[in-house]
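Protocol step 4 of 5: obtain the predicted structure for the target chain.
Materials: sequence only (see below). No template structures provided, no constraints applied. The aim of this step is simply to have a reference model before the mutagenesis design in step 5. Sequence pasted as it appears in the construct record:
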Amino acid sequence: MARTVTVTRKTRETDITLTLNLDGTGKAELDTGIGFFDHMLDGFARHGLFDLSVCCKGDLQVDCHHTIEDVGIVLGTAIRQALGDKQGIARFGSCLLPMDETLAMCAVDLGGRPYFVYDAAFAGQSCGGMDTQMAREFFYAVSYSAAMNLHLKVLYGENDHHKLEAMFKAFAKALDAASRPDPRIQGVLSTKGTL
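Step 4 output (structure tokens):
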């Protein structure tokens, strides 16, 4: 069963079309207008082995906020839709990811209850044209739109680029593990019988 979806969202601030294949090979076609954000999404797709296409026309003349947050909303919606009824998936996933001097941790539960915990600090206000504070807004939007429990923490590090990239890659690996089908699981992995 193909787990590929296309989601569109158009507001006065952004116009987004996103296609996600959870069972891809890591191919990405990205055009958000923010080069560094595209780089982060490329790392997410490649290391999660997701195929991801994003086209976003946003009000970048204001700043990067609406573009990054709204892409998070659409990506979270796509994840939720692609997972369908969640029959047979592992549900939980985690990753401890090193990137040079940085170590990031991510844990995911696709149990249907959104919750977000975030712990990361940055030396600068922006990195490559992306406001560093927007990482929190992006992952918050993803977690609530996908109805996932998402914990992200940078345990240590110095370089902002490395911290951001480690978080996106750790999220990719954790999500890949959580969304992966496991033939041993009959129905959904829950004592309640539903997710």
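Step 4 remarks: The mean pLDDT is 96. Residues 89 and 180 are 5 Å apart (CA to CA).
Proceed to step 5.
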